[in-house]
Amino acid sequence: MRWPTKGVLGAVALVGLAACGVSDDEAVRLKEGATLGVAGRGGLRNCTALGCGYQDEFCVQVFFEYGRSPAVCVAPDICERLECQQAGQQCAIFDGFPGQVKCIEPRE
Which of 5, 8, 41, 57 lies in disulfide reach of 52, CB 3.0 to 4.6 Å? Predict the structure, then answer.
């Protein structure tokens, strides 16, 4: 494959990845005065390949309106510190490594 063709394919791939953002339905924002970091542990920390190092922390990506955060360590009460962009949605933590913190439609 010649260089100009590789460049065009690379640009198309970057545009495709950038289009995979966070939807308005999923987006969260921090409540006034809240932080993502775990109190008493030096603020916000990124996850390592082994996780967070404390059993009472989760390794997650947070779905903000401007995009996903890097994998960070958060406390189990993270949804109490966040609010959904769209009214009527509720914050949820999805399992995985890293997990996901985003808004969903509430269960009835």
Answer: 57
